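Hello,

Our lab assistant flagged a job as stuck in the queue for most of the afternoon. It eventually completed. Since we weren't sure the result was trustworthy after the delay, we are filing this so someone can double-check. Below is the sequence as submitted and the structure that was eventually returned. Let us know if re-running is recommended.
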Amino acid sequence: MIHVYLDDYRTCPKGFLHARSAEECLLLLQECEVDVLSLDYDLGWGKPNGMDVVRGIVASNCYPKRIYLHTSSDSGRQHMFQALYASKPEHVLVVNGPMPHALLEEIAQNVKE
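-- returned structure --
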């Protein structure tokens, strides 16, 4: 099971695979079992964004176990949250904000070096 961090700019937290594009993120979601997914909205001028990832998740019904939205775009976060919350299976956790520090520490401590 993997953890995925979608962002074109920010540093990826320890214990996460860094997806720098919507396409890369969707490929990881299709090919791997994902526990935690943290989404950014803006991924570069004219490039697919976090909402494109959300649309792909909903269309494929390929949900990770936990989804966090770390984007600084308030409108992007709201659109992603509303779309995910309306369509998610009952067992999927969707949080309208970034991962808590305790979760980041837990995942980093479980990394085998």
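-- support follow-up --
The delay was a queue issue, not a problem with the job. The result is valid. The chain has a mean pLDDT of 97. The first helix runs from residue 22 to 31.
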